[in-house]
Structures are given as structure tokens and as C-alpha cells.
Amino acid sequence: MENGEEVLDADFKNRTKFVESSVYFKNAFRFESKDETWNLNLSTPLQFKSYQLEDQNFEEKRGFDRLVFEPRFSVNKKVSAFWDANASAELNYDFGELQQLYYGFLLNNYRNLNRYNAPISEETRQYYSGGLAYRNPLKQLFINASYSYSYSKNNLLYSSNIGENGTTILEALARDNSVDNHSFRAGGSKYFRKLKTTLKLNASYNLSKRQQLLNNMLAEVNTRSFNLQGSVDAEISSWLITNYSGNYSTYTSGFGESDFQQIESHQHTLDLYFYPKDNQYLSVGGEYYGNSLSDNGDNYFVNLSYQFTFEKPKMDLNISWRNILNTDEFINAYNNEYYYVQSSYRLRPSQVLATLKFTL
Hints:
- This is TonB-dependent receptor.
- It comes from Autumnicola edwardsiae.
- By secondary structure, this protein is mainly beta.
- The mean pLDDT is 85.
- The chain has one domain.
- It has strands at 16-25, 28-32, 38-43, 46-55, 61-69, 72-78, 83-95, 106-107, 112-115, 122-136, 141-162, 168-192, 197-214, 217-237, 240-255, 258-259, 263-274, 280-291, 299-310, 315-322, 329-335, 340-346, 351-358.
- The strands form 3 sheets. The protein has an 18-stranded mixed β-sheet that branches. A 3-stranded antiparallel β-sheet has the order 1-4-5, with no helix packed on it. A two-stranded antiparallel ribbon has the order 21-22.
- The radius of gyration is 27 Å and the shape is globular.
């Protein structure tokens, strides 16, 4: 105790000094066919990197020197007037950043306490991707699909110790491990002239596998996620425009062959814009948020706004009615590989607001 205050030991102090230096040589090669149907790019950068790290609270010093070669190759092929194909491959190295190079514990938020009392992180990452795209401006139709795979090898394994109150202590240990990730994406958009409507749809699916120490037990963490997004923009008439957007996602995680509960969440938004006259504007909007984690996870919101423009003097009068349904609570819930978090927010009651904007 000093002057009535408790002095923490070195485990809760950070006096870090980090020096990073590099010398690099970069070059790039590009080939393009005469008919512009082929486009190839190759880069072969060579870098020498030096890292030195020390902390006044500890005698141990960390550092290393690395000569790294990080090639990248990409190819684009114009298959036809509307079809394009592409592929790429690359190798890169990631080393520790200052935000992950502290010896003592650091409180990130009210739930997570982190410490990286380990060698400087080194990650070797291979990345491969391929895709196909269709673009037809005449029909205003656009479609794309892609697949990517990445494999990472790391020298640090992260250990999570979860307390009964939900707090998490994260530490980094010197132990080789790897991460596999597969990603599938597809999307498209179409404009319908007769309906004056644009339809968009995008979907993605991801698979990931990695090692994790949880409460001192080594486990293989598997995650799967799916996301679907869509929107419709329609000009129904000269005085009415509408917009709808929706998002649906699922997330599943597990250890080894055992899966936890699948989490579903969705969001829907509908907006109507009315233009009864040139100087008047009315908008009505509704929102819905839902998730499968919470019994009270359904949230509804409705808002109304009206604007009148005066020509002389030039003024805009806006009257808005917010939270018409008087929703008093918003619940947001999510999870990661091994825990579930629910946050509840108290909302302001329904209110009417009038504003007047003018120019001199």
C-alpha cells in the first residue's frame, strides 16, 4: 500500500518499447494480350524485417530478424462479351503488432482481460481464390460467384479461461497451430424497366477450423456461418418510392464433432416515400429485429416524418414522430465460439420533434 492506494505488481503493468524496421525490394510483372482477353499479374517482393521488444518491468527481451518472400499471382480472363473469370494465389507473413505485444494484463472491456506474455507472433498465410462474373449492361443484369481458401500457420496458441461470471482471461502461449477457412460467395442484381424496380440478392457461406485452449483443455473449434441479404428499390409512381432490405444469418460453432446451438438472426426494413406535391415530402419507415438467442429478442420500430418547404422565405419545416410504437427496450444478442452475450438497452419513449431550417 502507498498513500492508502494499492500498488499492483508487474503482471498488471506495461512499459513496452517496440522497434520495427524493414528493408524491402519490390517488383511487379504484368502481361496483357493484344485482344485484352488475358491479363496476368505477378509480384515478387522480398523483405528483410527486424523486430525488437522490451518491457521495463521484465528482464526478458524479445526480438528476431526475418527475410521473407511474399509472391502474389493473379489472372483475369475475358471469356466472352459478358463473362469474366479470375483466379489468384498469394503467400504472406504477418508478425506481431504493438497491440498484441504486452507482457502484463490489459483490460480491454468489462468482460475481457488479455495478456500476450509470449514470443512475438508469426503467421504464415496461403490464400487461393477463384471467381466468375456476368455483366450485361443492356439487360441491366449482374451476377457474380467466388470461392476462396486460406491456410494459416501460427506460432502462438490462444488460451481462454472463462469464469462463472462470464469474464474471459485470454493469454497467448508458444505452441504451433493452424487455421483453415473456406468461403463461398454469390450475388446478383437486376433492374426491371417496366416495373422501375431494382432487385439485389447476396449470399455467403463460411467454414472455419482452428485449435483453441479453453479452460486449459485443447479443443478443435469449428464454425459455420451463413448470411443472406436482399433489397428491393421500386419507383411505384411519380409520388411514391419504396425500399425494402432484409438480412438473415445463422452461426453455428462447436468443439470437435459436437455442435452448440445454431443461432439465427434477422433484420427487415421497409421505407415508403410520398411526394404529394413538389414542396411536400412524407416518409414512413418500419424496422424489425429478431434473434433466436433471446425470448424477448423481437423488436419493432415505426417512424414518421413530414417536410414542407416554403418558397418565400426559403424555409423547411420538418415534423417527425419517432418510435411510434413506444418500444422501451432493445435487446441485442450474439455469440462467438464458446460464449453467448445479450445486451439490453433502455430506449427513449415515443416523441414528436419539429425543426425549422432556413437560409438568409
